[in-house]
Amino acid sequence: KSQLSMEHDRKLERERLFLMYSKQWWNEYLSLRETHSERLVKIFTEDETGTTQMVCMMVAPLRSSLIDSPRHATRFVSQIPCTPRHVPGGTSTTEQWTSLHALIV
After folding, report:
1. What is residue 77's predicted lDDT score, i.e. its pLDDT?
2. Which end of the chain is more exposed for a tag (fewer CB within 10 A), N or C?
3. Three-class DSSP category at 29
4. CA–CA distance from 83 to each of 32, 37, 80, 97 (Å)?
């Protein structure tokens, strides 16, 4: 096998393992409380090309002297506006985060 093929296979294996882990995590999360099934939790998202990505691949640490703790970070993130987006021809609604630039401006 070529080097590129081996790297591609390793990437697919990592993604498969993450998918298995995320399914297990989701089932455990739902079993904690009945109300958890009503919460919108994003594990996967689509990038601008329409490719499905893990959310952790799209989130980068934000360095700030104003955010002192995970609680402050949670409060900051909860203030980012989400707008419902209806999929044409579908019955489901997704949420789209406004970009950080739009939030700050």
Report:
1. 77
2. C
3. helix
4. 28, 20, 10, 7
Best CA proximity match to 59, nearest among 71, 75, 43: 43
Residue 17 — φ and ψ, nearest 5°? Answer: -65, -40
Q: What sign for the dihedral angle of Cα 19, 94, 92, 50?
A: negative
Q: Is 66 in contact with 77 (CB distance < 8 Å)? A: no
For every residue of 51-89, DSSP letters joined together read -EEEGGGT------SS--SHHHHHHHHHTS-EEEEEPTT
Residue located via tokens 């080097």: 3
* Selection from 102, 104, 85, 101 nearest residue 40 by Cα: 85
Q: Is the pLDDT of residue 4 over 80?
A: yes
Residue 92, classed as helix, strand or coil, is coil
Alpha carbons 67 and 30: distance in angstroms, whole number: 29
Please give the pLDDT value at position 10. 92
Give dist(CA 71, CA 24) in Å, integer.
26
